[in-house]
Amino acid sequence: MKGPATRVHTRHQVIGRTLVITLGGRRRILSSAPQGGGFRSASHIINHQVDAHSGMNGPLPDPARYLRKLASELSIGYHTVGLMTAVPMTQLVTARVSAGELWVECFATVGVTNAVCAGEWPPSLAYRKEPYSMRVGTINLILITNGSLSTSAMVGAVQVATETKTGVLRDHTIPSRKGRDLATGTGTDAVVVACRLRGEGPLHTYSGTHTMMGALVGRAVSRCVSRGLAKARKWQKMHR
Q1: What's the predicted TM-score (pTM) here?
Q2: Which domain holds residue 25?
Q3: DSSP letter at 78?
């Protein structure tokens, strides 16, 4: 082990329309991000606001290529995981929860005008051809911990984060945009889990809801999604 878990530091700043998270070194990451998705190691995570009508009034550039170019312009290199959203960065919400030396941070942008209930049929073939069409309704969740998670624990963290997000949406009775059922998420949600490299921190083999890691993930996500929904409602009222 290279040092105590508390020595891990993350920094974040909003540059223009982009949230830039600096992880303080290489981290293991699992995500559904359009840039750097899947399992990989990276030193930065970005969440970039695009125009709300991108992909509707014209084709959006290839998301991965677009985000790699943006990372280069920001001088943070290609070891970057990148997300897109139409939610303004003024609606960014964060939370940090801890238990002893173990902590989890969550960064989120929350919009629900694109809300759906899992299992609903896609509206059209044309829609399926443009998966990165953006409405303001996207929930992007970025989770960072100073623990070292096993591969299965990283998947478990995604599971807990998704369960928590859906639970908050149900608690707030957010409807699917089709209006038939309560929403479980939006059509363009993404999640990122970042942890320390193997051997660099205390190992967590499991991260389900019976574990401390799972409890921290759940609390961080719950706080962020709840606060994000409040900001989303305020934004919608101001832009009606």
Answers
A1: 0.90
A2: 10-238
A3: S
Please state the rounded mean pLDDT for residues 206-230: 97
Q: What does the pLDDT look like over 31-81, one tens digit per residue?
A: 999 999 999 999 999 999 998 655 433 446 689 999 999 999 999 987 899
In a domain, 5, yes or no: no
Whether residue 210 lies inside any domain: the answer is yes
Q: What was the pLDDT predicted at 110?
A: 96
Q: What CATH code is carried by the domain that includes residue 33?
A: 3.60.70
Flag whether pLDDT at 125 surpasses 60. no
| Average model confidence (pLDDT) across the chain | 88
Residue 202: band (very low, low, confident or very high) from pLDDT cuts 50, 70, 90? confident
Q: Give residue 52's pLDDT.
A: 67
> What HEC string does the chain produce?
CCCCHHHCCCEEEEECCEEEEEEEEEEEEEECCCECCEEEEEEEEEEEECCCCCCCCCCCCCHHHHHHHHHHHCCCCCCEEEEEECCCHHHCEEEEEEECCEEEEEEEEECCCCEECCCCCCCCHHHHCCCCCCCCCCEEEEEEECCEECHHHHHHHHHHHHHHHHHHHHHCCCECCCCCCECCEECCCEEEEEECCCCCCCEECCCCCCCHHHHHHHHHHHHHHHHHHHHHHHHHHHCC
Q: Is 211 exposed, middle or buried (0-12, 13-18, 19+ CB in 10 A)?
A: middle
Total domains, the chain: 1
